[in-house]
């Protein structure tokens, strides 16, 4: 009988442990203390003491203390395990959430996501400002044509930051082909503006060019709704790599996390610096 009573007691603890996985641990803690008090009270009944053979004084007290310590430490362990598992789940969710913001498609590929953001406007009445920190603006002129064809080029201001021709002409950190590419792409953009001057005026479109004279550490796209696509320059054989294969981080408009705010602030800092060369 004694063995059955002890087994019942430990089975009760195991049931509480199992139940605690699906219930609030604090509630289980309270119930366990209640059961412990009831158990200690039962041990004080003479008939129970005689049945269990507790003849020595304080035996029931020591057993109660021992039972209390077992339950307490068990519950503390369960609570720590529960919180640790919750933290791990949150970390896993954060990693997955952040990974979903990464785009490995390079500058040309990111336009698909940029276009999605631009199409969120209501009837194209909401003005959109797109600011781009680029290198040689190799992808811009084809995209301007695409935006015009798709009806996106409407009520929009486009600010294009690009490397200054004289700065990169004899710069050992820059691919020697970039000055010629820059010249060509700038010409194509200017030609587009000239050929479509009436269209741009009619649909309230402005295209502004800002040359900058520093190494292009940060590049990407910024929309005035708070959405950003941010990438960083890489080195290859002592020179800045072309951003064709850049990995972009998409900062969504309603994302106010500290990591996002830091990246947003960083991009704005470089954008302001890139546009500052033409001020005054």
Structural description of this entry:
It is a single chain. The protein is elongated. The strands form two sheets. It has a seven-stranded mixed sheet with strand order 1-9-6-5-2-3-4, sandwiched between helices. Strands 7-8 form a two-stranded antiparallel sheet. It has 280 residues and is of the alpha+beta class. β2 (128-133), α6 and β3 form a beta-alpha-beta unit. The protein contains ten helices and nine strands. The chain has helices spanning 2-20, 25-43, 46-52, 59-99, 106-118, 140-150, 165-169, 178-195, 197-202, 258-276, and strands at 102-103, 128-133, 156-163, 205-212, 218-223, 228-232, 235-236, 239-240, 248-251.
Written as H for each helix and E for each strand, in order along the chain, the element string is: HHHHEHEHEHHHEEEEEEH
Largest sheet: 7 strands, mixed
The stretches of 5 or more residues where confidence is low (pLDDT under 50) are none
Q: Tell me, what's the shape?
A: elongated
With helices defined by DSSP (H or I, 4 residues minimum), what is the helix count? 10
Overall structural class, as computed from helix and strand content, comes to alpha+beta
**Spatial extent as radius of gyration:** 34 Å
Which strand order do you get reading across the main beta sheet?
1-9-6-5-2-3-4
Mean pLDDT: 79
Number of strands: 9
Estimate the strand proportion: 15-25%
Terminal CA distance:
96 Å
By oligomeric state, this entry counts as: single chain
Helix proportion of residues, in percent?
A: 55-70%
């Amino acid at each position: 009988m004694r063995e059955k009573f002890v087994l019942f007691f430990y089975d009760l603890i195991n049931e509480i442990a199992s139940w605690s996985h699906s219930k609030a641990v604090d509630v289980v803690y309270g119930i366990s203390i209640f059961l412990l008090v009831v158990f200690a009270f039962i041990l004080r009944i003479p008939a129970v003491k005689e049945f269990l053979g507790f003849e020595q004084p304080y035996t029931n007290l020591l057993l109660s203390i021992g039972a209390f310590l077992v339950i307490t430490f068990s519950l503390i362990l369960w609570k720590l395990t529960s919180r640790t598992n919750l933290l791990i789940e949150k970390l896993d969710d954060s990693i997955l959430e952040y990974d979903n913001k990464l785009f490995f498609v390079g500058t040309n590929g990111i336009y698909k996501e940029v276009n999605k953001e631009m199409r969120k406007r209501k009837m194209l009445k909401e003005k959109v400002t797109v600011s781009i920190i680029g290198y040689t603006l190799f992808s811009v002129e084809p995209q301007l044509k695409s935006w015009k064809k798709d009806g996106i080029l409407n009520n929009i201001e486009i600010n294009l930051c690009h490397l200054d021709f004289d700065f990169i002409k004899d710069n050992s950190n820059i691919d020697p082909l970039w000055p010629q590419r820059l010249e060509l792409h700038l010409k194509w953009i200017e030609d587009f503006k000239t050929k479509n001057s009436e269209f741009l005026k009619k649909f309230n479109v402005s295209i502004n060019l800002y040359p900058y004279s520093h190494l292009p550490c940060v590049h990407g796209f910024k929309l005035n709704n708070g959405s950003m696509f941010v990438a960083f320059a890489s080195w290859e054989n002592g020179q800045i790599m072309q951003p064709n294969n850049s990995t972009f981080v998409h900062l969504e408009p309603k994302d106010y996390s500290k990591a996002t705010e830091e990246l947003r602030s960083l991009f704005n800092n470089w954008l302001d610096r890139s546009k500052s060369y033409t001020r005054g």
